[in-house]
Each structure stands twice: as C-alpha cells, then as structure tokens.
Specification:
Layout (H helix, E strand, L loop, with lengths): L1 H43 L15 H7 L1 E6 L12 H22 L3 E5 L11 H14 L7 E5 L2 H4 L7 H11 L5 E5 L2 E5 L11 H20 L22 E3 L20 H4 L12 H11 L3 E4 L6 E5 L3 E5 L12 E7 L4 E7 L3 H22 L6 H14 L1
Parallel strand pairs: 1-2, 2-3, 5-6, 6-7, 7-9
Antiparallel strand pairs: 1-10, 4-5, 8-9, 10-11
GO molecular function, one term: metal ion binding
Protein name: Metallophosphoesterase 1
GO biological process, one term: endoplasmic reticulum to Golgi vesicle-mediated transport
Length: about 400
C-alpha cells in the first residue's frame, strides 16, 4: 500500500513535465503554422478585385462574362546553384509558393502574367541547372486548368543584350511558349508580349526577328481598329483582330529619367529615387520606347525590372505601371497587381503580401514569451511582487 502511493507521488512530477512539454510543443507549432501558412490567408483574404467603371452600366451576367480577372507579378528571381544558398533558397521559395497558391485559391483569377526575371541565374545556367530551376518553378507556380499562366522573358532569364544568345532565348521559349511579338487575346482584350531585352536596336539576329514580328502585329492591330467603311488596300487581306487597344506586357520599363516622381510605400527608397536610369540597362532606350508607343498606341503598359513600384504617364495619356518584385529577397513588402480588364476599360488594385519584418517581430515576441514561460515553470524567474515583498521586509529589518 505504501509502495503504490509513493510510486504515484514519484510519477506526478514526470506527468507535470510531460504536460508542460506538450504545451510548449503546441505553442511553438501554433506560431510556426500561423507565420508560415495561415498568415498568407489572413493577409490575402482582405484583397478585393477592383470594379471596372463601365461595369455599373452592364447587367450582372454580362459583367462577369466580359471582365477578365488578371494577376500580374514580376521578378520572382528563383535562386540558382551558383549564388543561391540552400537555406535562402528554401525560405524564399516557400514564401512565394505559399503566397501564389493562396492567391489562386482565394482570388481565382482567369489569367496570371509574370513579367520576367523568373530565374536569377538563367543567363548562366547549365542545361542541368536550368532543368532543375524549371522543375522548381513549375511546382511553385502550378495553376489549375481554369487559370492560364503567361510568362514573359527578362534579362536574368536570357542575359542582358550582350549575353543573350539564340540558344538561351530558344530554351526559354520552349518551356514557357514565349515569343516576342506574340498576341494573346482573351475576352476581346489584346495583350502584346514583348521581349524587351531584344529592343536594343543594333540589328542583332534576335533583335531583327523580334522587331519584325512586332511590326507585323502592329499592322494587324491598327487595321483591326479601323472603321468598317474605311477603305485601305493595305488592310484588305489582313486578319481582323478584336478592335481593342492593346495592353503592353514587358520586362523593362519604357524610358524615364529616374524614379524621382514615383510615390507610394513600395516605391524606391529615397536614397535611390534620384539616381539617373541608364538606357538599355535600367530602362528601354528613348528610341525603343517611342517605337513601341508608335506601333501599338497601348492603353496600358505593365513592366517590372526595377523591383519597386512606379506609375508614370507617357505622351500625357498612356499609363505605365512598374510592378515591384514578388520576392522577399528583394523587398520587405512584396505585392502583386489585381486587374479587372474589359475591351474598353480597366481597373487595377495592389495586393500586399505579409511584411517580413512583421513576421520576424511575431517570432521574436513568441521567442521571448517562450523563454519567460520556461523560466517561470522552473521557478527561475522571480515574480515582481515577491521582489517587492523582499525589499519591504529588508527595509523593515533595518
């Protein structure tokens, strides 16, 4: 009888320790699940598709059928084998995958555009490294059948102009079905895809082919926008396209002096805004920019490359939106653009992803609380009122 009672007493501390350990595991697991999984749902849940102004004059059925819901992001920069540390690679790719898949599940877009620099080392990658990067990309950015994915080439995918080769362009085209001068028409909306790296204007083989396709497409679009009674022999045998002014999609922004006029919380840092941009490196040349505007008269231009947000007007009427980087490696506050687009109008809204600094703050606060709980459990932390009581008793003794 005595032995059984003593055994029970001995087991009590063990049970308490196990119970405390279980509580710690639950606490740590809850913090990890929230910061690495649930936080993306909490943040993206607040993003809403913008309403198109013209939609108010249409019926509900007509509006839902005619509005194209598009997500636009840029500069994912998947790390490669040369410069990418495995831990950095694991962290950044997990963040982008969770953000992208959560956005697809919550927002259900019709189409997703990625505006170049998909890979960080595409310009250097060996065939084996390229295949590995592509495999990881396809896993991270896998889309359901109902959502189309369109990927545009950037300088980190095929190299700057002096690094660009037919081989690099070809392997990108094979994987992503990309062609400069390609037209994508969805719900009567024309999207023009541009290889902005090939807009050097020096007559290189890739540049000549790219510009020839753009000129031919420009002719088709211009003929399609003419009135039916307008007689033009040059347009008589041209395939007619939807008469909608196109949306231009490319990696490099059109020419602008700097980001000095850009504003917003995700614009360039103040110390970088006044740094002049270098033509054919930071932005397209003035000549190439004018060509694209003359050829297509776009109603909207979407670009990436700078990793920061900016909105500028070209020719006083054509808006260009520079989409910031989607990777936390480049920004503390990545985001993507949500666009509701019709053949005659569009409306854009930015959706911010979780701030990395806030995630770190949650981890630090949870770590501090965890330390306090452990110290309190082992009675290594003196409660404040005990400390005050000791001071009072010492004072009385004196």
């Amino acid at each position: 009888m005595l032995s059984s009672s003593s055994t029970t007493v001995e087991h009590l501390p063990l049970k308490k320790r196990l119970c405390f350990l279980l509580k710690l595991v639950c606490f740590v697991s809850s913090v990890l699940i929230f910061c690495e999984f649930l936080i993306y749902y909490v943040v993206i849940f607040h993003c809403r598709w913008p309403e198109v102004k013209g939609g108010a004059h249409m019926g509900k059925k007509e509006t839902s059928a005619s509005v194209l819901k598009a997500i636009i992001l840029a500069d994912t920069h998947l790390l490669g084998e040369i410069k990418g540390h495995w831990l950095d690679k694991l962290r950044r790719e997990w963040q982008m995958e969770r953000s992208f898949q959560t956005a697809l599940w919550l927002l259900q877009p019709d189409i997703v555009f990625i505006l170049g620099d998909v890979f960080d080392e595409g310009k250097w990658s060996s065939p084996q490294a390229w295949a590995d990067d592509v495999r990881r990309f396809q896993k991270m950015f896998k889309c359901p059948v109902s959502t189309e994915l369109v990927v545009i080439v950037g300088n980190h995918d095929i190299g700057f102009h002096y690094e660009m080769t037919t081989y690099k362009v070809s392997r990108f085209e094979k994987v992503f079905n990309f062609t400069s001068g390609k037209l994508i028409t969805r719900k009567g909306i024309n999207f023009v895809i541009v290889n902005s790296v090939a807009m050097e204007g020096d007559g290189c083989a890739v540049c000549r082919t790219s510009e020839a396709k753009l000129v031919a497409l420009s002719h088709k679009l211009n003929c399609s926008q003419q009135k039916p009674n307008h007689s033009n022999k040059r347009c008589s045998d041209v395939e007619k396209l939807p008469p909608s002014e196109p949306v231009l999609l490319q990696h490099y922004p059109l020419y602008r002096k700097s980001d000095a006029e850009c504003s917003g919380e995700d614009s360039a840092p103040p110390e970088e805004k006044n740094i002049p941009f270098k033509e054919k490196y930071d932005v397209l040349s003035q000549e190439a920019s004018q060509k694209l505007i003359w050829w297509f008269h776009p109603r909207l231009i979407l670009s990436g490359h700078t990793h920061s947000a900016c909105e500028v007007l070209h020719a006083g009427k054509i808006p260009e939106i520079s989409v910031p980087s989607f990777s936390w490696r480049n920004r503390n506050n990545p985001s993507f653009i949500m666009g509701s687009i019709t053949p005659t109008d569009f409306s854009l809204q930015k959706c911010f992803l979780p701030y990395e600094s806030r995630v770190f703050t949650i981890y630090c606060a949870a770590g501090a609380l965890l330390v306090i709980l452990i110290l309190a459990h082992f009675q290594l932390l003196t409660p404040p009122f005990y400390f005050a009581q000791r001071l009072i008793s010492k004072h009385k003794a004196v």
